[in-house]
C-alpha cells in the first residue's frame, strides 16, 4: 500500500508539472517563476467502482452524433475543417481590439439564423453594449440569447434554461467559481472554469467557443493545461493599422491544424475574404523597377504577395542602411550579400529598403527569390518582367549562400494559384539532379533556374543586366 509523502510538493502554475522540491524554472514548459508550493500530497488507495456506461465496440458507436454543422461563416468553417462538431470546445485567442467579439457575435447570429438556439455570454460588456454592436453589424436573430454573467454557476444555470446548441463565452478570464481559489483570470480559476465547460459540452453535445486573452509575448494567457483541455485552439491575428485579419488553427482534433481563414474589418463588421490575393499587391499603370510578385503559403493556402525594394546611394558614407518591413531583416541582409558576391551586383555602398504591400508579414523561405529579384531590379533600374517583357511574372524559391536555388514545399500548388490569377511566367528552382528546362502548366510558362544569376538573367527585362 502506498505511503503518503511527508515532503512538500511543488507544482507549475502554467502546465501542472510537479516536483518534490522547489526549482526556479519548470522542467516541463521551461517557464521561470511558475513553480509554487502546493502542500503535502495525499496518497490514498483507489477503490474499484462499477462503470456507469459499459464499453462497446468502436464500430458500433454512431458517427451521426458528431456530424459537422456549418456556422454560416465560410472562412471559419474552412479553418475548423468543415464546420462545428457537436460537443467541441474551441478556444479563440487574440490581441485586444483585433475583433474577436465582433467575429464571434457574427458567428452566433448566423448560427441562430438557421433556427439553432444560441447563447452568447459576455463578461466584459453589458447587454446594451452588445446589442449596440449587433445592431451596427446586423447580427440580430430570434434564436440568439444574450446574458451578461461572470459566475460559472449562473452560466451553467443559463445553459440549463436555454438549452443552446452553441455557447459563446467572452471571455474565460472574467469567469469565476466559488469552488476554486484565486481572482478572476488566475491560473486556478481559468483551469477549473474551462474544465467545467468541457464537461458540460461533452455531456450535452453543445459546441462551445471560448474567448481567451494573450500575454505581451503573444502567447495565450492562463495555464497551459487549458490548451490541452479544449479540442481546437485558434489564433486571431491582425495588424491594428490594417483591416486584414487571419484566423489560424494551432490545434484541431477534428481537422487540419495548419489552415487559415481570411477576414477584413469593415464599418459593417467582419467580412469574409475568400480570395485575399489582391490585398497584398499594388496596381501600376506601367511596369516599375524594384517590385516582384511571389506566392506564399499560409498553412495549406497559397496567397499572392508583392515585394518592393528601393536601392539608393548611401546617405552616410561607409554606413549603408538596410531597412525592412514585413520580411525578415536577417534574410534580406543574407540576400544582399549573396547578390553582391554571386551575382556581382555592387550593394556595399548603397541603402536598401525592402517592404511588403498591404501590411503582410512573410516568413516563408519561398519569398527569397522574389526579394532578391526586387533588389536586383531596383539596383539595375530594370523591371522584373521576364525575357519577353511580360509584366505578369512570379518568382518562387529559396536562395542558398552559394547562390543556388532550392525548391520549396507546395510548389505545384503555388504554380497552380499563379496560373489561376492569370500570370504569364513563373521562375522556380529546378528539380534536384535534373537540367533546367522550360515548360507550360495550365497556360503558365514555367522557367526553371539552378542559380540566382540565371534567375536574374531570366527575370529582368532585356537590356543592361
Automatic annotation (TrEMBL):
Quick one: which residues bind ATP? 94-101
Q: Which Pfam families match?
A: AAA_25 (PF13481), ChlI (PF13541), Zn_ribbon_LapB (PF18073)
Q: Which PROSITE patterns has this protein been placed in?
A: RECA_2 (PS50162)
Q: Does the keyword RNA-binding apply?
A: no
Known Gene3D superfamilies for this protein? 3.30.230.10, P-loop containing nucleotide triphosphate hydrolases
Please list the residue ranges annotated as the RecA family profile domain. Answer: 65-214
Keyword Zinc-finger included in the entry's annotation: yes
Q: Which CDD domains does its entry note?
A: RadA_SMS_N
Intervals of motif RadA KNRFG motif: 251-255
**Which portions of the sequence form the region Lon-protease-like?**
351-465
| Highest taxon listed in the record's lineage | Bacteria
InterPro entries attached here?
A: AAA+_ATPase, DNA_repair_RadA, P-loop_NTPase, RecA_ATP-bd, Ribosomal_Su5_D2-typ_SF, Ribsml_uS5_D2-typ_fold_subgr, Rubredoxin_2
> Which keywords does this Swiss-Prot/TrEMBL entry list?
ATP-binding, DNA damage, DNA repair, DNA-binding, Hydrolase, Metal-binding, Nucleotide-binding, Stress response, Zinc, Zinc-finger
Q: Which SUPFAM superfamilies match?
A: P-loop containing nucleoside triphosphate hydrolases, Ribosomal protein S5 domain 2-like
Which NCBIfam families does the record cross-reference, listed alphabetically? sms
UniProt lists the family membership as follows: Belongs to the RecA family. RadA subfamily.
Q: What does this protein do?
A: Plays a role in repairing double-strand DNA breaks, probably involving stabilizing or processing branched DNA or blocked replication forks. DNA-dependent ATPase involved in processing of recombination intermediates, plays a role in repairing DNA breaks. Stimulates the branch migration of RecA-mediated strand transfer reactions, allowing the 3' invading strand to extend heteroduplex DNA faster. Binds ssDNA in the presence of ADP but not other nucleotides, has ATPase activity that is stimulated by ssDNA and various branched DNA structures, but inhibited by SSB. Does not have RecA's homology-searching function.
**Protein's UniProt name:** DNA repair protein RadA
**Which organism does this sequence originate in?**
Ammonicoccus fulvus
Gene that encodes it:
radA
